[in-house]
Amino acid sequence: MAIPYLPKFIASDTSSMVGPLLAPSSAPLSPPIFTQDDFKKAAAYKAVEFVHSGMVLGLGTGSTARHAVDRIGDLLRQGKLKDIVGIPTSKKTYDQAVSLGIPLSDLDSHPVIDLAIDGADEVDPDLNLVKGRGGSLLREKMVECVCKKFIVIVDESKLVDFIGGSGLAMPVEVVPYCWKFTAVRLQNLFKDSGCVGKLRTVGENGEPYVTDNENYIVDLYFNKDIGDLNVASDRILRLAGVVEHGMFLDMATTVIVAGELGITIKDKQ
Ligand SMILES: O=C(CO)[C@H](O)[C@H](O)COP(=O)(O)O
């Protein structure tokens, strides 16, 4: 279902609108120009329409999910949502939610989640995802695999023909112990797909990126389709030293895509 009225979903905050949308009505008509962040926000706001008072909510991580968490905070403050409990998927989201006054809990106290809203790095035609380029894949997967509904929010640049199809990383969280050994073993699993594994680093000195769980991330790059994703998933998870990978297979129940043509809602068949 394509809804060709993107501005409708971001109309409550016109500060993010750019170009002719802010121009006076007497200005010459020209096509509105939206930024990628406008699309992220539009998808996020649409997803928050599915949030109801009393829900236990999985709160995603990343620049798209951030808009959804902000919106939930706004609605709580305005009294339009009540009795929400948020389960954050990262320390960053925890901090954001605390700053917005969103009541928080964890999976020990709330093992079943009504709805999770999160971004993704890739979405394939079957709604399989790559997540974790923001580094939070483990907690995201723990939260999102126990939710009744999982809404993924993306701008249209995240749509791919096959997982790995963006040419960007498929992250794997590994224990720091002998990570090089694990990276080589991961790479060897997908030799036929030209797989290259690189340790994710930060800063000028190339220090390893450390996840919220004190692990490292090996980013896998493929130069072609890796085939059966469930087989690939099993092979990765069988390697000692691997904690979790960023393929979220058969988990999304709905994907909301925002782009030049408006918002599209895709439901898992
Ligand atoms: O998986 C994630 C973090 O681990 C993010 O949801 C994913 O990287 C998308 O991020 P963004 O919305 O900033 O593009």
UniProtKB/TrEMBL annotation:
SUPFAM superfamilies: D-ribose-5-phosphate isomerase (RpiA), lid domain, NagB/RpiA/CoA transferase-like. It is an enzyme of class 5 (isomerase). It holds the Pfam family Rib_5-P_isom_A. One of its GO terms (biological process) is pentose-phosphate shunt, non-oxidative branch. It comes from the Eukaryota. InterPro entries: NagB/RpiA_transferase-like, Ribose-5P_isomerase, Ribose5P_isomerase_typA_subgr, Ribose5P_isomerase_type_A. PANTHER family: RIBOSE-5-PHOSPHATE ISOMERASE 2-RELATED, RIBOSE-5-PHOSPHATE ISOMERASE 3, CHLOROPLASTIC-RELATED. Belongs to the ribose 5-phosphate isomerase family. This is ribose-5-phosphate isomerase.
